[in-house]
From TrEMBL:
Protein name as annotated: Citrate synthase
Gene Ontology MF: a single term: acyltransferase activity, acyl groups converted into alkyl on transfer
Recorded superkingdom: Eukaryota
One GO process term, biological-process aspect: carbohydrate metabolic process
One Pfam family cited in the UniProt record for this chain: Citrate_synt
GO CC list: mitochondrial matrix
SUPFAM superfamilies: Citrate synthase
Annotated source species: Arcella intermedia
Matches recorded under InterPro entries: Citrate_synth-like_lrg_a-sub, Citrate_synthase, Citrate_synthase_sf
Keyword line: Transferase
UniProt similarity note: Belongs to the citrate synthase family.
């Protein structure tokens, strides 16, 4: 996205001396261009890295999410509907790390390309952007260590999880920094999974962990809210529909966050919010 910065309107207009009250208008224009281009950039990355560089040519124009799914190389209408739900639930990113990073960088009057790039960089981390991939690794670890007939046993799985936590391991997909109860997005993703993939073994295992892990974390960890977060459900649904390349999951999350972080950036410039310093 940094490469697109040279096409930015705000930076050009700023150098020409536009007045502060109209900053938001050009931030808005740049933001719309970022959101429009992000699916194409993300899909090209996917095809280059995982599909040998062979790109997909769109035959029929769809909405933003539909085009993204098609450009990835998928045509399943149900996957497309899930991705619309995914984008809807995860696009409002004003309160998370990506939203804060973008807000911080934006307070210096950086353009949307720079702000969004900063937000994307925050996703390249094990505790944030890669949490879904790490949760998938946890499911795979359990499946490799427990016989199939024992995975469905709550006492066996509880004992395994307790030992895993007591060994000092971090359990990805659980805990939330500012929600005090259940994450409503997790509830909606789980409702979707129960309707559309009720027999998926990874979903069944995740559901058991949702019931077991919070109580264990309350007993062994200083955790304000040990309830499952979105990382414990969204990745396995992507996996179910064939998007099995887990290292790509942060890119998908970053695509959805473009809507949320840039909406907040537009509002920040509209309200003429000041620069943010560490003591602010």
């Amino acid at each position: 996205m940094l490469a697109f910065s040279s096409q930015g309107v705000f930076s050009k207009k700023y150098r020409e001396g536009i007045r502060r009250p109209v900053y938001w208008e050009y931030i808005f224009e740049d933001s719309m261009n970022v959101i429009a281009n992000a699916p194409h950039v993300a899909a090209r990355i996917y095809r280059n890295v995982f599909k040998g560089g062979e790109q997909v040519v769109l035959k029929n124009n769809n909405d933003l999410v539909g085009n993204f799914v098609n450009l990835l190389g998928f045509n399943d209408p149900q996957f497309m509907e899930f991705m619309r739900l995914y984008v809807l639930l995860l696009s409002d990113s004003g309160g998370d790390i990506g939203g804060y990073v973008s807000h911080l960088v934006g307070s210096t009057l950086s353009d949307p390309y720079l702000c969004y790039s900063a937000a994307l960089n925050s996703l390249a981390s094990p505790l944030y952007g890669n949490a879904s991939a790490k949760f998938m690794k946890l499911l795979q670890l359990i499946e490799s260590q427990l016989p199939p007939n024992e995975i469905s046993s709550k006492p066996v799985l509880t004992n395994w999880a307790q030992n895993y936590i007591q060994e000092g391991n971090l359990v990805p997909g659980f805990g939330h920094s500012y929600l005090k109860g259940d994450d409503p997005r997790v509830v909606m993703f789980c409702d979707y999974a129960r309707k559309h993939l009720p027999q998926n073994m990874k979903f069944k295992l995740a559901t058991q962990l949702h019931q077991i892990v919070p109580d264990l974390l309350r007993k062994t960890k200083n955790t304000n809210n040990p309830q499952p977060n979105i990382a414990s459900i969204n990745g396995l649904i992507l996996h179910h529909y064939g998007l099995t390349e887990e290292t790509f999951y942060p890119v998908v999350l970053g695509l959805t966050q473009s809507i949320g972080v840039l909406s907040n950036l537009i509002l920040s410039r509209h309200y003429e919010l000041p620069i943010i310093y560490p003591i602010s």
